[in-house]
Specification:
568 residues; alpha+beta; Nucleotidyltransferase, domain 5; Actin, Chain A, domain 4; Substrate Binding Domain Of DNAk, Chain A, domain 1; 11 helices; 25 strands; 27% helix
Length: 568
Amino acid sequence: MAEKKSEPVVGIDLGTTHSVIAHLAPDGRPVTIQNREGNLTTPSVVFFDRASVVAGKEAVKAALHEPELIAQFAKRDVGRSAYRKAIRGERLPPEVIQALVLQKLKCDAERKIGNFDKAVITVPAFFNEPRRKSTQDAGRLAGLEVLDIINEPTAAAIAYGVQQGFLTGKAAAKGPEKILVYDLGGGTFDATLMDIDGFNYNAVATVGDVHLGGIDWDARIVDYVAKHFVDNHGVDPRRDAATYQCLLQEAADVKHSLTARNEVSIHFAYEGHRARITLTRDKFESLAVDLLERTRFTVNNLLRDAGLTWDDLTRVILVGGSTRMPMIERMLRRESGKPVDGSLSPDEAVAHGAAIYAGLLMASDESERPRLAVRNVNSHDLGVLGIDSKTKRRSRKVLVPRNTPLPATGSGRFVTRRESQSNVKVDVIEGGDASGNGATPIGKCVIEDLPPSLPAGSRINVFFTYADNGRLTVRARLPDVDREATLSIERASGLSDKLLEHWKERMREGLRVGSRADEPPVASRANLEEPVVASLADENLEVTDFLVDEDEPEPPPIVNPKPPSARP
């Protein structure tokens, strides 16, 4: 009887500007899969033609002629209710655009390695839970079972371990390493500190900026050229959509050229005016000095928050296509006082690490499983929003602080706000400041039908259990009346099941944008980018809120589960 062929093991780096897919070869090595055009990277661009949808390189070509019909940089809109602009009069969820890119990657890859429906997808380490859930939704829309969402710097660190032979035993680490992964991609920036000890990969702390990347450096070149036209000819090429797309692509090419050359001539024409503009590397770096400074400031804050200095690091690793700019390595050498490791492929490393991690998750038995243990940290504070008992103002109480190793638990004690409350609502939030401004709502845990004689100030104990797969369990208990409620949040924000099914059906039909009148309004989903504002009361549920009681001691914390460890 023929041996059953195992399903390909796949990892995907779903990027802002370009995406990469990789699989594990029979010998366990990660290998990038070329797309149909023969390239290792696929532009994360989608063109909505009148009768079909095109993603990748052909969509980039179409952008020059019909820019109003393309969607690009959708990763920056993940977590919002709709993509930044309407396409043929429709406001599409960013998940749909991301799913179309994933479909292109999946279809092209299956021509090389056969059919598959499981994959690990990477996200920036600083993505919050709603953005991670949205990425999972995109995978589902594309016909993928998303085995897990893994942080891009963590995936890069795993790829580094493979390159050094740590996971195969061909090269043993001389000792524990504490590395900084500096990941500057096309649209996002992350910096992550990791401990590598044998086969254990443990994130220590992470920080980032989901709105900073190579396209922001491109924009400085665009503005430089546009200023020349405005100053010399009184016209602005950024005002015409098609011309702007041409200028944006020209800027990206110039940026790439300045990686190897000290000077580039830009030839551009608009409304009958032609210009030849010389841009030197020094001038380019001066145009973007504030962007570089933002990454430097972020990295130094990361080290300070972790209680470390540059001297504590054994290695600084570069990841992401934008780290090819000489200014990046020069700044890091100056800051760290040590050589910078650029040995990883900036474009492929993240997808390679995701494929290795997928192999860990898909191994059917211990003998097949890679000798690898990965532990991440939560990138944002997780807490509860309430009313401060002293100031009577809205207040956030953090139960699981940022950069806590996962899995983790946390607990807090609160009290009811009014006498004879019939309900208690626990508002679970992520991020934000001490007052809850800028926080992202994650879910609500509600205890109803409380006794009518319940006095004000009755105790409420709240417990968080946060698993390493992103599943958050919230338990709220009123010990005086023996009532409790439990809420299980598995990246519960994002598209509803109804909206997911709607868009799946649309995509099965070919997604002719603008052709359907039964489109549910995407605005019905909460805009996850908006901060929590106004009253905590939920008029629909008629649930009252509670007081944050800082005076009483918290109940003893639940002991963290034992951290994972690599097999010997």
